[in-house]
Amino acid sequence: MAIPPIAALEIGTSRTVFCVGETDDNGRVRVTGVGTYPSTGVRKGQITDLAQAGVGVEAAAKQAEKQADVSIWQVLLAISGAHIQTMVNTGVATIRSNDCVVSKEDIEEVMENAQAVQIEADRQVLHTITQSYMVDDQPGIMKPEGMRCKVLTLNVLAVHGLKNRIENAVSVAKGVQLDVTDVAFSGVCAALAVLTPEQRHNGVLLVDLGGGTTNYIAYCNNVISAAGCIAIGGDHVTNDIALAFNIPLNRAEELKRTEGCAMIDPDTSGRRVVLPSDVGFSERLISSKALQTVINARMDETFRVLRSKLDEIGVLPHLGGGVILTGGGAYLRKVCDLGQRVFGLPCRIGLPVNVDGLDAVEQPAALSTAAGLVLYGKMTYEDRRLFSPLRNFLRGVFRR
Amino acid sequence: MSQEQQTGLLLLGVGGGGCRLAAAVSAAYGGGMCALGVDTDALSNREASAGGMTTLLLGGARLAGHGTGGDAIQGRLAAQDDMQNVGTHLQGVRTVVVTACLGAGTGGGATPEIVKTLHDMGVATVCFVTKPFAFEGEARRSSAERVLPMIEESADSMVVVALDDLFVELGDLSVDAAMRQAEQTLATGITLLWRLVTKPGFIRLDPERLHAMVLKGGNARFCCASAQGQDRAAQAVASLRACRLLGPRDTLSKANALLLGILAGSDLRLAEVGEVMSKVRSQCKPECVLEMGTVLDDAYEGRLDLVAMAFESWTAAAPIAQPGKEAVASAEPPVAEDFPIQPGARKSRAAKHASKLSYGATGRGKFQNVEPTIFHGQDLDIPTFVRRGIQLER
Complex ipTM, two decimals? Predict the structure, then answer.
């Protein structure tokens, strides 16, 4: 049975993105409809005004519905924000069979134990991602079935967030008559869309440079070893520019997009950027070097904060595949050069290569999270079909 | 632990010029001194380490050891990159004497960053910084002038030496000889700080007093003088007063505190020490706090050298008011209670006195009423360039 169309919603800090995807005969996901709308009522990835955020969701949904020629009433929702945290949880199971061979039931038991994450009552687990098994005292086992041992241990990376913050985002969707069937961490979604199996195997760091947050996810040996969210994003760059040159935020944003550069370019020394006159503002000249200095300082710091988080858990030496930047911030000029310098690893822009249908889209990396969320929807749909055929109902989208 | 380590003093040369000066000091001291040179230029580092000094490359990942090319921002970022490595050399260090030549990239960019970090760590800092020659051009001069307030904000004591003043009487010498003699002059002064603590004559300046003096020092003037012969004590004081490095002639009389070192051979007589002290005392105002020490070195037989640091903005601790008793004269030696040392909790000089610096906008802008993003105690919603103290080209 073919998988019905899947709708994915990302209420980002700078824009709301709606994606509708379908699965083709080869099992690949193809995005058939995209809707975007500038967000209001969102700060650092979290909802600050339900009504204003709802306006963006409604507009983006209509756009996507029209393009995909479907009617949407259920969606998957991407969640981000500084409240997202991770922890490694360990589950243990004793092998009961006389021959001490690990069976499917043993694996299910250890999985169940590992997924029983103890967190504060006000928090909600979004994902429990399998890391690796330990067979007695032998670590790093990926497929323990059939192996002999007395004790089977499993480490899972639990991603959790504050219930209320998640509920607020869900409420925005509900406010425009959309039923949220599942929520997922934006970083996980972006990784699904962007990273190739080779990169995951070699070890890679994916950095999703969003408007209000920077999500990251690090793979070492095919296993997610770190994930998280830093509440700094492109909005901070814009805010810094606005304060540095005493200009309104919309002009700072425009300046960032047209003249922004993450590195201080010695060739532009002495060059001045014209900020054209507008209602209430006369024409101004801004030093190009000063603009680059402001942006460089912020981006350098963002990467350094991230580096120090990864340093703490010792992940950096295992990232043979380098650093992949995605999200709207990845289009900032020379941001890869800066990333390379800070992390000391090769750095490049990552596009949502695991999803088709985005070739005609301008700046596809900005859609990585939403496109990845469609993939996530496909994967969870398949899982549910496998384990519980009864739950295999339509995913909330049907043909007009 | 060696005697040098026990003093808790570290000499830190920053940048090419600073490292060269630190190497000269280290050589003048004669080995054993705790000295560290940090620079972005691997070649300059190699030269300094060849002289026996420990060196550290700043911003290796960023600049690949090629230096900053005169860009102070690069110097600052390089210091931020490797500040952790500098920190590993600070075990047991309470006072750091920083030497740097301003006007270039590393000296100008890294020095404020390093001094600020040391200040935050609760380490007392005395900065000996030189201003570039007039012939080096306006750009270097203004670059140095821009950096001075940044250092001043975090440094506990700062001595600014204009290279033009240092070379005023050396014009006829060859460049090499003049440079060596100028370095020697500065090195003698800085070395004396160590000698007063580690190799004293019969009057020792204990490290605690030096630490306390430095902690409240503020801007200082530095001068040195030398004399030989029968009337060497009087001559040395006269030439000390005339020293061009001291600036205006009334600097001594305006100083709130004076640190005086007497360097002589074993032929130094007590009467000469008395004569020097009484003559210096007569130059200073009555409430000026005078700390002194002597160093006896056989190499100085027949000579008498004086080195002085005059602290203009030194502030004595406010005396505790006691009923029926007049306030204690500020000329009294400071007592330990007046100098509670609280690592990491000291206020910057900018906080003590109104700052001269204005970094421009300091608000949080659109993040005014939003849950702050705090990382390692810093509010990341405040623009990075403001927190890093980066001056923007206008």
Answer: 0.89
